[in-house]
Amino acid sequence: MKGKKYLMVFLLSICMVSAIHGEENLSKSSNESVRPTVAVNQNGIVLVVWCENTQKNAESGNLYYNVFENSQWSGPKNTGITKSEAYTPQLDVDSKGNFHLCYADGSSVMDREIYHAVYSPGTGWSNATMIWLSEDNSEWTRIDIENDMIHILWMHQNSPPYSGSDIVMQYKKDTETSWLSLYERISWNANEASKNPDFKVKDNRIYCCYMQGSPFAAPWKLYYKEGDRGIYWRPFKETTVAPSAYYPELEVDKDNNVHIVWSDEDGNLYYREKQGENWKAKKIISSGNAPLQMSELCYLSPSLTTVFTQTDNNKDTLYYAVKKDGEDWELPVQVSPAKEGAGHPGVWIDENYVMHVVWEDGGGIGTNREIWYERVQALQPVKAPQNFTGQVLENRTLFYREQIHHLTWQPNPENENIVKYKLYEIDGINRLLVGEIDANTFEYYRRFATPNKTYTYELVAVDDQDIVGEAATLTIQ
Length: 477
Fold this sequence. Notes:
- This protein is mainly β.
- It is built from no helices and 39 strands.
- Strands 1, 2, 30, 31 and 32 form a 5-stranded antiparallel beta sheet that branches. Strands 3, 4, 5, 6 and 7 form a 5-stranded antiparallel beta sheet that branches. Strands 8, 9, 10, 11 and 12 form a 5-stranded antiparallel beta sheet that branches.
- It starts with 17 loop residues before the first strand and ends with a strand.
């Protein structure tokens, strides 16, 4: 999945982007490691999940993971939740910082079911729950969480006498224990195949795109539908976005404009935007040959970012491109040189303007594919406040005693258009918002502090585009 609504966008300048630590091999296995997905929670914990198989060229397998917290990676581990062979895992994060994973799992490519599991930092993996039992096949899962309502979308194979497949959806609150007894059917094309969907949920409205065509022959058309959650979708007519398309990705921006990118057999990565009821003409994002392969797309105001593969020196190489609101796409920038050939990229953007990028490629142990990870960061547009200090005060009367933390700071002279400061308390892996302070105020009194307890605070400036800056850190007792 992609960066979420609680995360702020990074501003990207092509000439100022650099890798933070260099790429890392997360799988470190002689097995085939494929189809990675990545997510980052509000506390900066990074979770990467992928499929691992002993068979060469496999696209499914046991679900493995690697988690980054306390400044280090855990190392690759088996999730222990795979039933037979998992496929197309996807991640998202809820407001509590828990990671939600959806995936298909089954004993063959024609008999998969859809599952959901939760990874809680400090606790580990929950049991996997089957959210739908199909008579035939289900796969190509997608997940999106809004206001802790979990939405899972997938391709559902129709039962005879129909020969096609549909795009369907299930949803529930994260506090509910069971899923609905009926799915929400979106595509309604019983005798054609609908597959490879993507979707976004915003204000309880579903925005969805998918490939559709004959189950037996190309071309695949790119269709789009939108509607409120809970409606009867059959009367709603789909829109044809492109007459030929593969592996679409969709995002919705702050103004409810819809953005879709897709691959095609002519070697281009394409893009179209829907503003209101009008679709703008398609554009080409790639600057070289872009092979027929999956990409990833994410929006965080005011920028749209896509990660995809493009051919360099006869190898599929990982690139990204950026489109700021109201502007055209910038030229693609290479993330990492190819080893044997990159594929299946994923990206998440955190509140520190860092792109967490994952992909599969060779170059590790043996000759099979590994899971690679790299963090790429733009020039920070908002700097940390300066001279962040604190002292312990005591408010005492004859019958009352209270400890207070008096925190002070100075504005960073490099910053412009700051509208407020945010103060956080760091408590283990949790980052708790203490208060928001006006831009012209440079002190804060934290009342009712516990005596002799060590507190760690972070202070960040926020500008008029809601962009959060680097943190100033203070420890006080």
